[in-house]
Amino acid sequence: MARGDLTDHEWSLIGPLLPPERGRWARPSGDNRLFVNGMLDVLRTGCPWRDMPECHGKWNSVYVRFRRWAEQGVWDALLQTLGDLGLTDNWQHMLDSTVVRAHSQATGGKGGAHSEGFGRSRGGFTSKIHAQCDNQGRPLGIVLTGGQV
User: Among residues 75, 26, 31, which one has the least CA distance to residue 57?
Assistant: First the structure.
């Protein structure tokens, strides 16, 4: 087991939650644990898929399975299940906002200020950018409002 790979205990929790993979008639499918370790390695290090270490299998196979599971909603269901079991600490969120000043001509034509998130405040035309992050500082959502909001 390499550094950063899933432990046996972690795999026993999430392994049954993943869909079983069936290979095409000509080839057997790879091990889900090997693929998940490859996915986690790419996400942890931030490297391109093509630069994924070969110990996790072919990069294209790992990428295709990652995309397929994302399109099928496997990751959302996995996180929801882990949250329902109380295994994630996603209860702490951080909010931050900043004010951005804009030139008066940036609002475009008549009435364009409201549709583009501009507002008139004491400082002139401004916008506020509100960001919500989880407890690790990863962004969850961004909202753009007028400066007077």
Answer: 31
